Amino acid sequence: MTSTRPDFGVFAAMATPFDEAGAVDHARAADHAVRLLAEGCDGLALFGTTGEGASLGERERGALHDALLAAGAPAERIVVALVAPALETAIAQAEAALERGANRLLATPPFYFKGVSDEALYAWHARLIEAVGGRGARLVLYHIPAVTGVPLSRALVRRLKRAFGEAILGVKDSDGEIAYAEALCADGDLAVLVGDERLLARAARAGAAGTISGLANVVPGRLGAMLRTGADDAELVALVEAVTDLPVVPAVKALVAERRADDGWRRARPPLEGLAPEAARRLAAHARPLLGADRGR
Residue 175: phi, psi to the nearest 5? Predict the structure, then answer.
C-alpha cells in the first residue's frame, strides 16, 4: 500500500505541575513548555496520562492551555487529550481545544464501563467526530488498555478510518505490544505514535510517525534521534525500565524535578502521590548520565 501517513514527530506528554496548595502551577508549566519546544520537542500533548488529565477540571484545563499560549507556545504545536467517559464532556473538551487553535485531539475512549463492544465504541467515537469534525478536528485514537480497560481493536480503528477519513489522524499505541503498532504502520494511512519508548526504534523502522512520550519531558533529543534513525538506545531503554518499575507518573515528575533542578515538580495530585524520596534518589542516579550537561537547565 502507498503510504499516506502524516508526519508527527516527538511530542512531550507534558507533566502538570502543582503548587503547594495543590493548584495547577501555570508559571512553572509555561516555563517547562517553552523549554521543551526549545530543547527539541516538535510539540506538546496536554492533559493525557502523564499530565494527570483525569484529575483536572474543565476550568483548570482551559486556564492551563491559555497560560501556555500566553507564554508563546504555538497553538498548532499543541495536542489536547480528551479524558471523559461522558460524550457531552468529551465534546466540550474538544470544542475548548478547537477554540484555542488546537485541532489535534488525543481521544481517550469512554473508560468507565468495561467489556463494551466494538460496535458501541464505534458509536461513541462517531458521535464525537460528528459533533466536532466539521470544525477541522483530527483525532488520535488512544489505545492504552492497561489504564482505561478499554482496548481499541485494529478492526475498530480501520472502520473509523474508512468512515471518517482525514478526521482520524492516527493512533497513540501505549499497549506495549509491538505487533499492534507494526500492523497499523503497515496500513500506511495512519500516524502511528508509540507511547512505550522501549518500542520506538523498532516502530520507527516499521514506519511509525512519532511518539507522545512521558520521557520527552526530560530527554526529547534522545527520542528524536531514535525516531529519525530507527537506532536502538540501550541507555534510554534502561531508564524506561527503571521508570516502569515505579509508579510511572510520579517517576516522570521526579525526573523533571531532577532535569530542572526544581523540587516543586515532585508534587502529584491525589489520588496520585509524589515518589518516595529514596526511590526518587535511586531514579535520579540512574538518569543523570542521560541528562548530562543539560541537568538543571
Answer: -85, -25
